[in-house]
Amino acid sequence: MKTLAELKKRLAALKAEGRGIVEAAEVSEDAVLSEAQEERFAAIEEEIAQVQAQITEKEKLNERRRRMQADGEGTQTGGGTGSGTGGRNAVHDSDPRQTAGFRDIGEFAVAVHGAVNASRYGGEVDHRLAALTGSHEGGGAEGEGYSLPPQFRDNIWELMTEFDEFGPLIDEEPTSSREVKLMHDETTPWGTSGIKAYWRKEGSKMTPTELDDEGRNVPLHELYTLALASEELLEDAPRLNNRLSRKAAQAIAWKKNLAIVEGNGVGQPLGWMKSTALITVGKEAGQAADTISALNVIKMYSRLLMVPGDEPFWQANSDTLPQLMTMTVGDKPIWMPPNGLANAPGGFLLGKPVRLTEYAKTVGDLGDLQLISPKGYYAARRSSGVKFASSIHLYFDYNTMAFRWVFRYGGQPHLKKPVSPANGPTKSHFVALAERA
């Protein structure tokens, strides 16, 4: 059964796909959904209704657990790690299997802080930490750690998906391994290797062919954030909860997304901008520095290799807008706002949506304008069973008094190099405009 975080992630992905279908129809010649789009949109609406119903049921169940919790319930623990209960730690147990009795991650962090002080100076450890089966981990010089209760792990993952720009778009899947093996056959029917078809005259011998299968390893790299916390903040669980959960999620999501775009593949995912699958379209003869021409855009579009069923998009820095919005072919604009200039944050370029993002370089640099078929990128995230982000742990370091979040992630483009079509120049899932200096 899916967790609440998984359901909300699926809901966000469905809504994003639905928006993409509507936006594509808006810029079509008839401004209506095609038969295939209608069919897919109806399926999306049906699944959204199902997912929303499951979310409602799970939230209702959580609320019922909360209401059944007796007020003031608690157990003597000592050690000075209480949360305003006079030496007793109140148990906030919406589901003891999910929260271990903690109200939120801030209260959990304060308990971890108290446990480390107890081990250094004497005192008792909050009994709720001891109740977390297999939670305590020795870290030697790096300190001691306690595994986050499942609900708080899911909450962090849920926050990460809120800031996750590419996760719902790329070919991403969970795995319990630290490395996955991809099977690749990048041959084409017109090439010299791989499966081929032949004409045969009657009675002649058939020529056998076989898959040209290249196994490729995708390691899952460790991504972490080490957050310093003052003694004052450690004594304030509500503030600590907000700082740790949202800030850690933002930091991890940013770094993960950045690696998907421009990671070098050494101790981190290989991004499409650093991969050998990238196609760069050069500037035109005599083109001025830091400019984008209509011919640049058209040539980029001609080199895109679309994954069947995918929704390609342009990725651009916002400082490209003054040029994109005024660009024409003859007297016809090639950039179109979805509903007039009042509702046009990104608009459409040659019918594909424009995503304005900090993952694109400033105008004039390589990567200021990119054309992406996102399903051409494969990624794997570490999970355990049906729980997302189960490898994220909260640590307290003896020397630096810091909290450390860790999870594993790996990725690379499906293609090792651009594909050579039967006729014409190579194509790829990833096309970028070269530097115009």
Automatic annotation (TrEMBL):
Compositionally skewed regions (Gly residues) per UniProt: 75-87
Coiled coil (UniProt feature): none
Record InterPro entries: Phage_capsid, Phage_capsid-like_C
Annotated ranges, domain Phage capsid-like C-terminal: 145-419
Record localization: Virion
Ranges for region Disordered: 60-99
Stated name of the protein: Phage major capsid protein
